[in-house]
Design brief:
Blueprint (H helix, E strand, L loop, with lengths): L1 H23 L25 E4 L15 H5 L3 E5 L10 H6 L3 E3 L1 H4 L4 E3 L6 H7 L3 E4 L8 H8 L3 E4 L15 H20 L7 E3 L2 E3 L3 E5 L3 H12 L3 E5 L5 H7 L3 E2 L20 H15 L4 E4 L14 H5 L6 E4 L16 E5 L5 E5 L9 H18 L14 H6 E4 L2 E2 L26 H23 L5 H17 L8 H11 L3 H6 L11 H30 L15 H15 L3 H21 L10 H19 L4 H24 L5 H26 L7 H28 L13 H21 L3 H24 L6 H22 L3 H24 L4 H6 L20 E2 L2 H10 L2 E6 L1 H6 L2 H13 L3 E6 L9 H8 L7 E3 L5 H4 L4 E5 L8 H4 L19 E5 L21 E5 L2 H11 L1
Parallel strand pairs: 1-2, 1-4, 2-3, 4-5, 5-6, 9-10, 9-12, 10-11, 12-13, 13-15, 18-24, 19-20, 19-22, 20-21, 22-23, 23-24
Antiparallel strand pairs: 6-16, 7-8, 14-15, 16-17
Helix pairs in contact: 1-7, 1-12, 1-30, 7-8, 7-12, 15-28, 16-18, 16-23, 16-28, 18-22, 18-23, 18-33, 19-20, 19-21, 20-21, 20-28, 23-24, 23-27, 24-25, 24-26, 24-27, 25-26, 27-28, 30-36, 32-36
Pfam families: AlaDh_PNT_C, AlaDh_PNT_N, PNTB, PNTB_4TM
Protein name: proton-translocating NAD(P)(+) transhydrogenase
EC number: 7.1.1.1
Length: 1051
């Protein structure tokens, strides 16, 4: 078992351990290093520096070939001592292929910058002369290093002096990366000495208990050991002088042992302090009792600059069970176990005659030389790259906190140990704080009542102008029902909800039907407009319902029982048959009115069924029944020659056929632009009906209500049509998704809006049909231009809001059509769609912490960059490979996938579903979580996952995962999402997305983000994503589809 695990890490170790090293590194507040250059002339500075890699007396090497690429591109000349990497598995030819030059031992010391893992001898340091060395110089233990470097006028960067609480410096932390390897390898070495499997077994021959492992010291090495032992099936206990470590230990599934003492061992700089004699006595009693039942003890406790504390005494070792093992990772600094002998494995006889083996290897990382060297070189290469300034010069910058904390000598000048400056203290104001005034209940109630009075008075005033109060009541109730029916709809069903409301808005066909005339072909302009409305509405009806059914079928699970939802078309079919019988009996008028009411109720039922996954596939059939009854009611109201019915059949067939053909070609990624395209058809149909009604009837007989309805119907239809065309172009990427920023943008919108209002005023006050027609034409033209300009001025980031807003517009246009024709059916359906669309728009705005006015008038979708304290230079990112990601998933017990629009672009949802299935089959808990505004329309990512076969019951809304629950996930894999996971939305009140609800993937134990490039500004908001700089976050670069395929292969 141990051999197999070791082999897996040797194959994929670079990616896995790199991820683990960064994940377990101690976190701290971000410090912003100044960029001014040191006044002193520092060695090794310039553009074309030479970097030397020394061959040391051990297996590891300071840098490996894969660490050299970026340094070579910077213009550095890398010189590698002949054979330096052979012991770690890297040949001279590999270094040469990476751009390095192979040189002799004497030549390599003449490099401008010399890199070693271990402190060089005094004789070797003399070869450095006055140049720069980067190494673990152990200056705390050997002050002579200070003196020799200063005497030679050299510069020394001691990697072991890094201020570990500096967030930016975590990428340079060689102690953490090497400790991580050591912690893992300690478990492997213990397994070699241990004569039992780690995991318990139940066999016919008897029971084997799981190994009990105790880890003393839970820094980076300790946590790595805990994880490795847990993965092998051991029962793990751990203890540490720092009480704060308990949470980390418990989060990894281990038990934290607490010493009965109030003393805490946390110290400054991310290290532990030396404890008192009283604490050691309390710890001794606890550990003596624990050792009696512990099979393996791994110790990792070290104090910088001092001898390692003895935690496990000989008495404790002798109390261990037979076959017990100790592995002392502090052997090189004296050892935590009293029986440890450096670089030896010794056998101790216990108090009952049992044998305990004590392992004291002093250089544990060297036993995994390839991986350890890769990580060490990765830390050093990131450090060296960070030392280049903006002009491309390599400089030793004392104002850089990370560099300064490691800098012990600069050009011969000895430097004191670095003490970071205290954080700035906020100025204390002399003015007394103004206490918030208590809320007066009477005043608050009065304000609410006055607001309600104003609204109700305005409603009564408007209602008094409506000739048919029954129609007004229908409108009011439909608005209430519309907003209420969508409140319970989950985010995952927002796309199908929009699709079905878009299909229902094809009821504009009723207005077109009532304007048909002539014969097989229309004879007049109003008749032509009616035929146009019928054709376009038929496209919308057929295509809309087909797309809705296609979406909902994607949510069907493999084990769902068969469904017979088409049976729900029987009741409306019977009702339509009843209308036919009533027509034959000469009593169709009363039945037609009832059928119209039933039509509206059917549409309401269709939308209401969208609130639950268990009923959602009933919704299209209920809505189709409602639409069918509405069309039948309109047929009864038509009093035209038989040839006109032929015209109706032809136009409906043309539109329906086109809708069928279009819907058949629409895939999941084309859904957003398809919905926008269908919206535009509804807008044209509504405008055609309104203009046709104006041309058909005597304008002088219009009252103010009907005249207003005609104008508003044409206005809403026109703005819907043009806005939808622009939205279609942006979503289909047929035009730039950037916001159009014309000079005087807001003034243009205000001018067009004012012009439209003037047109309405002229339309209502004139009795001259010519002037009225001109006013109506101006209103249609200006509203069309306004829809075009306003949508073009909204950036691609806000397209989900635009889609829902256009959905609402199409509903209000249909409602106005109902008012024009005195049709309760169209009024019900239009108000239903308009109010539900408005509610969805509000949901989308809340999902981005935006107001509707902010979206329409321009927000971050219109900017070219986001403000904020996080700059690209502050973000130090770490990378992982596909193999490392696969290993992380294998070691996880709980996994979260977070898809973004990048998943849709890559068309990789099928691979994600397959990976998810594989992990579930292995007994892991897997969830998916899509942001409510991720993608190009609400709920688009949920539809994509459903299409790939991901069961909807493991796809969570973001509100279903709290911060505490996010911390339970071992790995969070982000695929093509950016703004929706940006930590700056929470941390930076000055950034463009401040306050926007985001998915806090940075709280997971390990976060892997799949991206095409390391550019932190690739989101819609063009804002640096601070999540990428988190210590537990790694970037997996490349095509999402390719990298996911590689992960699947490695699994």
């Amino acid at each position: 078992m141990v051999a197999n695990m070791h082999g897996a890490v040797l194959r994929h170790g670079a990616g896995l351990v790199r991820a683990a090293a960064q994940r377990n590194a101690l976190a701290g507040p971000r410090a912003h290093a100044a960029r001014a250059l040191s006044a002193a002339a520092s060695q090794g500075e310039g553009k074309n520096i030479r970097i030397g890699i020394i061959k040391e007396g051990e297996e590891r090497v300071g840098m490996v070939p894969e660490n050299l690429d970026k340094l070579v591109k910077k213009g550095a000349e890398v010189q590698v001592q002949d054979g330096a990497g052979v012991a770690a598995g890297f040949s001279n030819s590999q270094y040469e292929a990476a751009g390095a030059k192979i040189v002799s031992g004497e030549e390599v010391w003449k490099s401008d910058v010399v890199v070693t893992i271990n402190k060089p001898s005094s004789d070797d340091l003399k070869k450095l002369e006055d140049r720069l060395i980067v190494s673990q110089l152990q200056a705390r233990n050997d002050p002579a290093v200070y003196d020799q470097l200063a005497e030679q006028k050299a510069t020394g960067l001691s990697l072991d002096m890094l201020m570990r609480t500096l967030s930016r410096g975590q990428a340079f932390d060689v102690l953490s990366s090497q400790a991580n390897v050591a912690g893992y390898r300690a478990v492997i070495e213990a397994g070699y000495q241990f004569q039992r499997p780690f995991a318990g077994q139940m066999t016919a021959a008897g029971r084997i208990n799981p190994a009990r492992v105790l880890v003393c010291g839970t820094g980076v090495a300790g946590l790595a050991a805990i994880q490795a032992a847990k993965n092998l099936g051991a029962v793990v206990n751990a203890f540490d002088v720092r009480a704060a470590a308990a949470e980390q230990v418990q989060s990894m599934g281990a038990n934290f042992l607490k010493v009965e003492s109030d003393e805490d061992g946390s110290a400054a700089g991310g290290y532990a302090k030396e404890m008192s004699a009283e604490w050691f006595e309390a710890a001794r009693k606890m550990l003596l009792k624990e050792c009696a039942s512990t099979d393996i003890i791994i110790t990792t406790a070290q104090i910088p600059g001092k001898k390692a504390p003895v935690l496990i005494t000989k008495e404790m070792v002798e109390a261990m069970p037979s076959g017990g093992v100790t592995v002392d990772l502090a052997a090189s600094t004296g050892g935590n176990v009293e029986t440890t002998q450096l670089d030896k494995v010794v056998s101790i006889t216990g108090k009952n005659g049992q044998t305990i083996n004590c392992v004291g290897y002093g250089n544990m990382p060297a036993r995994m030389a390839s991986v350890a060297s890769t990580l060490f070189g990765g830390n050093v290469s990131k450090l060296l790259l960070s030392m280049y300034d903006k002009e491309g010069n390599f400089v030793v910058n004392e104002s850089d906190e990370a560099v300064r904390s490691m800098l012990i000598v600069n050009a011969g000048k000895k430097l004191e140990p670095y003490n970071p400056p205290p954080p700035p203290v906020a100025p204390v104001s002399d003015e007394p704080k103004e206490e918030p005034k208590p809320v007066d209940p009477q005043q608050k109630t009065l304000e609410t009542v006055l607001l309600g009075t104003g609204i109700s008075s305005a409603a009564i005033g408007v209602g008094s102008k409506v000739p048919d109060t029954g129609l007004l009541a229908t409108f009011a109730l439909s608005v209430w029902l519309g907003s209420g029916s969508v409140r319970g709809v989950a985010h995952s069903l927002h796309s199908p909800l929009m699709s079905i409301t878009n299909a229902i808005s094809g009821m504009t066909i009723v207005g077109g039907m009532l304007q048909l005339g002539g014969g097989i072909l229309p004879h007049t302009m109003p008749q032509l407009l009616g035929a146009t409305a019928v054709t376009l509405s038929a496209v919308n009806l057929t295509g809309g319902f087909m797309v809705t059914n296609k979406m909902l079928d994607m949510f069907r699970r493999k084990d769902d029982p068969p469904e017979f939802n088409h049976y729900y078309l029987l009741p409306p079919a019977v009702a339509v048959g009843g209308l036919g019988l009533a027509s034959l009996a000469g009593n169709s008028s009363a039945v037609a009115g009832t059928l119209g009411l039933a039509s509206g109720l059917g549409c309401i039922a269709g939308i209401s069924q969208m609130s639950s996954q268990s009923t959602t596939r009933i919704a299209p059939y209920a809505a189709m029944g409602g639409v069918g009854m509405g069309i039948a009611s309109a047929l009864q109201a038509m009093d035209v020659p038989a040839s006109v019915y032929g015209q109706l059949a032809i136009t409906s067939a043309i539109g329906g056929g086109a809708g069928y053909a279009l819907a058949g070609r629409i895939g999941p990624t084309q859904l957003p632009q398809a919905v926008a395209g269908f919206h535009s058809l509804v807008g044209v149909a509504a405008t055609s009906t309104a203009v046709g009604d104006f041309l058909t009837h005597d304008f002088t007989h219009f009252d103010g209500f009907h005249a207003s309805s005609i104008y508003l119907g044409a206005f809403m239809g026109s703005i819907t049509a043009t806005g939808s065309v622009i939205a279609f172009g942006k979503l289909a990427e047929m035009m730039s998704t950037d916001a159009l920023a014309l000079p005087g943008r807001d003034a243009l919108n205000i001018g067009m809006g004012a012009g439209s209002l003037l047109g309405l005023a002229g339309f209502l006050t004139t009795s001259d049909p010519t002037i009225a027609g001109a006013c109506l034409a101006s209103g249609v033209g200006l509203s069309g231009l306004m829809g075009l300009h306003m949508t073009a001025s909204i950036g691609g980031a806000d397209m989900p809001v635009v889609i829902t807003l256009l959905n609402s517009y199409s509903g209000w246009a249909l409602c106005a059509e109902g008012m024009i024709l005195d049709s309760p059916v169209l009024t019900i359906v239009g108000a239903l769609i308009g109010s539900s669309g408005a509610f969805l728009t509000n949901v989308m705005c809340e999902g981005m912490n935006r107001s509707l006015a902010n979206v329409i008038l321009g927000g971050f979708g219109t900017s070219t960059g986001g403000a904020g304290v996080a700059s690209d230079d502050d973000l130090v990112v770490t990378e992982i490979d596909s193999a490392g990601t696969a290993e992380a998933l294998k070691g996880a017990s709980k996994v979260l996938f977070v898809p973004g629009y990048g998943l849709a672009v890559a068309q990789a949802q099928g691979i994600v579903a397959d990976i998810s299935s594989k992990l579930i089959a292995e007994g892991k808990t897997v969830h998916h979580c899509a942001h409510s505004v991720a993608g190009r329309m609400p709920g688009q990512l949920n539809v994509l996952l459903a299409e790939a076969g991901v069961p909807y019951d493991i796809v969570l809304d973001m509100e279903e995962i709290s911060d505490d629950e996010m911390a339970d996930y071992d790995v969070a894999v982000v695929i093509g999402a950016n703004d929706t996971i940006n930590k700056a939305a929470r941390d930076d009140p000055s950034c463009a997305i401040a306050g926007m609800p985001v998915i806090p993937v940075w709280l997971a134990k390990h976060c892997v983000v799949l991206k095409r490039s390391a550019n932190p500004r690739s989101g819609y908001a063009n804002l640096a994503n601070t999540t990428f700089g988190e210590n537990n976050c790694d970037l997996l670069l490349g095509s999402a589809k390719d990298t996911l395929e590689q992960i699947r292969s490695n699994l």
